[in-house]
Amino acid sequence: NAGVTQTPKFQVLKTGQSMTLQCAQDMNHNSMYWYRQDPGMGLRLIYYSASEGTTDKGEVPNGYNVSRLNKREFSLRLESAAPSQTSVYFCASSEQGQDTEAFFGQGTRLTVV
Amino acid sequence: GNSVTQMEGPVTLSEEAFLTINCTYTATGYPSLFWYVQYPGEGLQLLLKATKADDKGSNKGFEATYRKETTSFHLEKGSVQVSDSAVYFCALSVGGFKTIFGAGTRLFVKA
């Protein structure tokens, strides 16, 4: 009963380093999302993938890239980390349709020093 | 554009007190509305939803009514418990692919 699994849970990077956040879901959902959560700003959408093979920019895509590897997996890459990317990152998935619930992973707490 | 505004927190209540967390929205089209809850150290999970005007969503003693005339979806609970301490997010979805979240309201319930 895993749902949405994110790795790693915690990460500290130095400015300029790169890393990839991994996300996998086992609910056969078509749509997957990456959000960042910052104090007082709620969740902001970075990128989303409506279906396998497609990705689109969300509200705050600068400094990030994504890959929808297959239906299960959706990764987020930081090519050159900056302190402004210190945040908690959440992956989510859902069925398509505006009435549908989004299922979230437990989050990755990233600190860039 | 589409946006969600919810009351700033934190909200601190004593156990068994009445809870209201205000949420208003702006949307083009006809959104679905949601309340999500985030417990410490966890991701968000759906608390309740309403998909059309005058619908009432309810779960675990929480309720919210979709009010189109006031563009509101306020969360209420008649008697809160310590275990309700969490961050609550109001959200909307229009068009199916993107959910827009409010800033979140932290609730502390004291025994």
How many H/I helices of chain B? 0
The structure class of chain A reads mainly beta
Radius of gyration of chain B: 13 Å
The proportion of residues forming helix of chain B, as a percent range, comes to: under 10%
Beta-strand proportion of chain A:
over 45%
Q: What's the rounded overall pLDDT mean of chain A?
A: 93
Name the overall outline of chain A. Answer: globular
The largest sheet of chain A, given as strand count, sense and whether it forms a barrel, is:
7 strands, mixed
- Report the strand count of chain B: 12
Largest interface: A-B, 28 and 26 residues
Low-confidence stretches of chain B: none
Overall morphology of chain B: globular
The rounded distance between the terminal residues' Cα atoms of chain A is 36 Å
Helix vs. strand class of chain B: mainly beta
The chain-level mean pLDDT of chain B equals 93
Order of helices and strands of chain B: EEEEEEEEEEEE
**What order do the helices and strands of chain A follow?**
EEEEEEEEEEE
Oligomer: heterodimer
Instruction: Point out poorly predicted stretches of chain A.
Output: none
How many strands of chain A?
Answer: 11
Helix content of chain A: under 10%
